[in-house]
């Protein structure tokens, strides 16, 4: 299995072992983990998670598990920084199809890295 990029919700559900994550998404993330390939989390997802924890929409354990996974050299999770090339790739994600800027950044991260994106977001999926 190749490395992949995950949307914010996919990272959260995987870390919480939540049933919301589809079997295909879980299998892809498990395969990446088992084969030593990275699971890239866009830096904007980290910001979103911090924000949602602050608002009480996610439990604190999510940020704790994510930061633990990011600091563990044996874990698959890796932050994909918002680089200049990723920022410019946002132009390739139609604002009419994906109006939410964090979602556009996550999709642009996958495009820029040339990797598949694990998401359930229908707008992102429609954008290709």
Characterise this structure:
The chain is α/β, with parallel strands linked by helices and 128 residues long. The protein has a single domain (4-122), classed as 5'-nuclease (Rossmann fold, 3-Layer(aba) Sandwich). 55% of the residues lie in helices and 10% in strands. The protein is built from 7 helices and 4 strands. Strands 3-2-1-4 form a 4-stranded parallel sheet. Helix 3 runs antiparallel to helix 4. The longest helix is centred in the first third of the chain and has 13 residues, at 23-35. It is globular.
**Overall number of strands:** 4
**Strands of the biggest beta sheet: in what spatial order?**
3-2-1-4
Helices, by number, come to 7
Proper CATH architecture: 3-Layer(aba) Sandwich
Top keywords for this entry?
128 residues; alpha/beta; Rossmann fold; 4-stranded parallel beta sheet; 7 helices; 55% helix; globular
Summarize, please.
The protein is α/β, with parallel strands linked by helices.
